[in-house]
Design goal:
The complex is a heterodimer.
Chain A: H1 8-12, H2 14-18, H3 21-39, H4 45-52, H5 61-86, H6 95-106, H7 110-134, H8 136-145, H9 148-165, H10 170-183, E1 187-188, E2 195-196, H11 210-228, H12 248-270, H13 276-290, H14 302-326, H15 332-343, H16 352-355, H17 357-386, H18 393-412, H19 415-433, H20 438-461, H21 468-471, H22 473-499
Antiparallel strand pairs in A: 1-2
Chain B: H1 2-20, H2 22-25, E1 31-35, H3 42-57, E2 64-68, H4 75-82, E3 90-94, H5 97-103, E4 114-123, E5 125-130, H6 138-147, E6 153-156, H7 161-173, E7 178-181, H8 185-193, E8 199-203, H9 204-210, E9 215-220, E10 246-253, H10 258-272, H11 275-283, E11 287-292, H12 293-309, H13 311-314
Parallel strand pairs in B: 1-2, 1-3, 6-7, 6-8
Antiparallel strand pairs in B: 3-10, 4-10, 4-11, 5-8, 5-9
Classes of the chains: A mainly alpha, B alpha/beta.
Chain lengths: 502, 317
């Protein structure tokens, strides 16, 4: 394989590119819009970028790239605000942040929760950028070697991880994960293009979209719950926004966790097809399993917030790596970015360094600058946004519903999705009542199609032979990690029991 | 308040009258162009480029507006366009994916549920292998594939236009690949580069993107060579058929008034005659062809027959 890849210094040239008025303006605008859209449940970064794409037709192509990459970074970050304050993940990537961010905010420390999330996002974004500059070529070469069996076992690993961390009961976690996988089944069979489980309903031909289900499960179910105790006028206790700025001791306490989570995010970002969503699951689980206080996860653990937010931002830089070096998109948004390049008659991939070096500079610069802008803007926006928690619910809930309905409708201009969203809102409400965790459900919904498509692709390749799952080293490795994560809590629980009597 | 109600009533009456007297004044409001593929994808970009040109030229009194109705790789948009009011204000822009989706049974209808407006631009496929593959020519590959029937893995996107082109090619060359579902262009190049699969097809636009990433083209699925693709032998000159051409089709729901169809076809023709648009389409790997009326209807019907005949193969039977 002959992939020509650029050196570090060529990539650093990007910094010079961005220090001029127009790129800086577009970076500011893009980051701001990204954060706003990310913070609103139902509106996602990919939607914002898809809608912006036609507007960039007549723009300078470098400016267009800066604008779109900044939106990407902003959207991944903005989700943590609503995840923390309202327990509604603004984007799928911030699902994991609801687990600990919201309990912490309810406990009267929203400032600390947001501050940790924002700082972790910043660290993740910066490390992702460093990886983009330094590690791009070698990592991409490894990622390209991954075949369907590696992808399959890796998604299985992520599924096991999420089921093992999210609730009180492992079995309820697995139940939720499998239900999520079931919901992913109707629609077009991804491997052979045939319809399945659609019961002859044209509305089901596309299956249940992730976005309507997600908004239903988290936002609508929360609205139903809040309506039931509408008298509750938000938080009674004084909101403490102290702790917004991280202390020096935090660097020592959370530094390693942030770096480890960022590395996980970068690696998962590089792998084509999966991005920030899965990165946050894997990093969160890893953090919990290495933690000295795993019992605090899900109840307001600082480590949980740091892991989720560092990894999803790091995945942004990571997913730009194969795009810039090979022209292969690392996530859905990256595929849209490739579309933007093509509109401007630029071919992404290794030749971009020769034919359009200024485009590569734009990518690299936008990734760095939007991380920095994101940090500044989020800190500035937190104070006004945190008042959301004190507004009477009777005023907030209708507005949230309007955003949910418009966001889901705008997704593909279809009322079917709005009904699906409402139905899953009811389901989410009932699941919470039964203490079946929502996290594994969503992750099952997102991962099951990937696992299925990859496994079947692999089986088509080997004419039905399963053995490569165990004989390919990377594939076996992922399975062993999954097993270890599944067993580790049991082992630790036994050890704790042994120690306790003494 | 009273005046408002009156005005609204007047507007409603006017709207009703306008619908009946469509012929002269069409279009009176923006026309929605349903694109059943994602924003930013190659099919979407081609349609948007043409729509922008039509709007810039001002050949219609009202703008065209692209609406992406995605899902299931096309069928969701097909259903929505078929069930739209046939008043000339909702049209579909698609390609032969509409025919293959009927052939494999995803939709119970194909092109016959629509009135053809126009064809604007065609693109084709390139057969490619990894740069260090042992085959120097398409003949080498066919010989190797015939020696191991059903064993050489082909990265495919099952059930769509690319699969259709692949079935037509392997039929005429007489080999049988092992079809592996891999997906879009990015996934297929990764699969080829990583050595997971042996060969694949790329659209001309994909090929232009990837040609320097470590792949080699062995055949261009067309009657003759093309400047865009470069020095790659065409299947036509090798005696392996003309290949499948993926044309952009503009279709209206059945029952749309002929005047509306003619007006839209004329607008698309005007845009396609623009040298700037032709240049920009060529840069995207699209040949700026144009057809409408009887000629287009016959072309679509002919392809529909081929697609239906390939149905079992597309379903993997």
């Amino acid at each position: 394989m002959n992939i020509q890849t650029p050196g570090v210094f060529e990539l650093l040239g990007g910094i010079a590119y961005i220090i001029s008025p127009w790129p800086l303006f577009y970076a500011t605008l893009g980051t701001f819009l990204g954060i706003t859209v990310g913070a609103i449940p139902g509106l996602t970064g990919s939607m914002l970028i898809a809608l912006t794409l036609p507007l960039t037709f007549h723009m300078d192509s470098g400016h267009a790239i800066v604008l779109l990459v900044s939106m990407y970074m902003g959207a991944v970050s903005g989700g943590l605000i609503s995840a923390t304050l309202l327990r509604m993940p603004g984007t799928p990537a911030s699902v994991m942040t609801t687990f600990d961010g919201h309990p912490m905010a309810r406990a009267g420390k929203p400032g600390r929760a947001l501050g940790l999330g924002i700082s972790a996002s910043f660290v993740g974004g910066l490390l992702g950028w460093v990886a983009l500059v330094v590690l791009a070529p070698p990592l991409t070469r490894i990622a390209v070697r991954f075949g369907p069996f590696e992808y399959f076992t890796m998604t299985v690993m992520a599924l096991v991880l999420i089921a093992s961390v999210s609730g009180k009961s492992l079995w309820k976690g697995i139940l939720a994960g499998l239900l999520g996988a079931l919901v992913a089944m109707p629609g077009i069979d991804p491997s052979i293009g045939q319809l399945r489980l659609t019961f002859d309903r044209p509305e089901l031909v596309a299956g249940f979209g992730v976005l309507p289900v997600l908004v239903g499960l988290f936002a609508v179910s929360q609205v139903i719950k809040d309506i039931l105790d509408i008298e509750d006028r938000g938080l009674a206790t004084e909101l403490s926004l102290t702790g917004l700025f991280p202390r020096l001791s935090d660097a020592a306490r959370h530094g390693w966790n942030a770096i480890r989570s960022s590395l996980i995010g970068i690696w998962i970002g590089i792998l084509p097809g999966i991005g920030p969503n899965i990165a946050s699951v894997v990093a969160y689980t890893t953090a919990r399993n290495f933690s000295k206080h795993p019992e605090a996860f899900g109840k307001g653990s600082e480590e949980g917030i740091v892991a989720a937010e560092a990894s999803n931002n790091a995945a942004v830089g990571g997913s730009l790596i194969p795009l810039v070096t090979l022209g292969i998109p690392g996530s859905v948004i990256d595929a849209l970015l490739i579309g933007a390049l093509v509109i401007h008659n630029i071919q992404p991939g290794p030749m971009m360094f020769v034919s359009n070096p200024e485009m590569v500079h734009a990518f690299v610069a936008a990734c760095l600058v939007s991380s920095i802008f994101m940090y500044a803007m989020m800190l500035a926006l937190v104070r006004p946004l945190s008042h959301l928690m004190r507004i009477p619910k009777a005023l907030v809930l209708p507005a949230v519903m309007v955003f949910c309905v418009t966001g889901v409708f705008a997704y593909d201009n279809s009322w079917d999705n709005v009904w699906i969203m409402l139905a899953f809102g009811v389901l989410g409400f009932l699941m919470e009542r039964a203490e079946i965790p929502l996290g594994p459900f969503v992750i099952g919904l997102i991962l099951a199609p990937i696992a299925e498509a990859q496994l079947r692709s692999g089986l088509m390749l080997t004419a039905g032979d399963f053995s490569p799952i165990l004989t390919r080293p990377a594939s076996l490795g992922f399975l062993l990690v999954a097993l270890a994560f599944l067993l580790w809590p049991l082992v630790r629980a036994r050890r704790a029991k042994h120690r306790a009597p003494r | 308040m009273g005046i408002f109600v009156k005005l609204t009533t007047a507007a409603c009456v006017a709207a009703v009258t306008a619908t009946t007297a469509l012929a002269a004044d069409y279009p009176e409001r923006p026309v929605r162009v349903i694109v059943p593929y994602g924003a930013g994808g190659s099919s979407d970009i081609v349609v948007r480029t043409i729509v922008n040109k039509i709007n810039d030229l001002g050949v219609l009194d009202q703008p065209l507006a692209v609406v992406n109705i995605t899902g299931a790789g096309g069928p969701v948009g097909f259903f929505r366009a078929k069930d739209a009011e046939p008043d000339g204000y909702q049209i579909l822009a698609t390609h032969l994916g509409l025919l293959t989706s009927k052939a494999v049974g995803t939709t119970p209808f194909g092109a016959e549920a629509f009135e053809p407006i126009a064809q604007s631009g065609s693109t084709r496929f390139v057969f490619a292998v990894r740069e260090d593959a042992p085959y120097q020519s398409f003949d080498d590959f066919v010989a190797a594939a015939k020696a191991k029937p059903g064993e050489l893995p082909e990265a495919n996107s099952i059930g769509g236009a690319l699969h259709f082109a692949s079935v037509v090619l392997s039929d005429s060359a007489g080999y049988e690949p092992r079809i592996v579902q891999v997906g879009g262009g990015a996934e297929r190049i990764k699969s080829i580069l990583g050595g997971t699969t042996d060969h694949t097809l790329f659209t001309v636009a994909e090929y232009s993107n990837f040609k320097d990433s470590g792949i080699r083209a062995l055949a261009y699925l067309a009657p003759e060579r093309s400047d865009t693709v470069g020095d790659v032998p065409a299947t036509g000159e090798m005696g392996l058929g003309d290949g499948v051409s993926v044309d952009t089709w503009w279709l209206a729901p059945e029952g749309t008034p002929q005047e509306a169809i003619d007006t839209l076809a004329e607008a698309i023709r005007a845009a396609m005659e623009d040298p700037e648009l032709q240049e920009s389409l060529r840069a995207k790997g699209v040949d700026p062809t144009f057809a409408s009326g009887e000629e287009l209807a016959a072309h679509i019907a002919e392809l529909a027959d081929v697609a239906m005949a390939a149905g079992p193969a597309l379903k993997g039977e």
